[in-house]
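Handout, page 2. Input:
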Amino acid sequence: GIFGNMQELYQTVRKAQQVVQVEAVKVQKELAATEFDGYCEGELVKAVLSGNQEPLRVEITEAAMELGAEKLSLLVNDAYKDAHQKSVMAMKERMKNLAESLGMPPGLTPS
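Output:
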């Protein structure tokens, strides 16, 4: 009857949710293991973030140190922003690919 069909639909939806969850976790783990390098202009400072935007390290050249604290602060910030932007773009791309591979309509990405 109708309740049997509803139960079947419910089970199908639950299975789909589980697949999405498993795949999303896999993507998150891949991203966490990926590093993104960001640089300021002139590459005097390098900031490294993981794919889930966790700061990993900052590398500062002697030339950057000689510019003084105020300028150095700006360079570190620029390098961090660059790495962050690359990391976020990669995450969005991976989630978009995941959604497509699972047959989800465009614009509907797993969170």
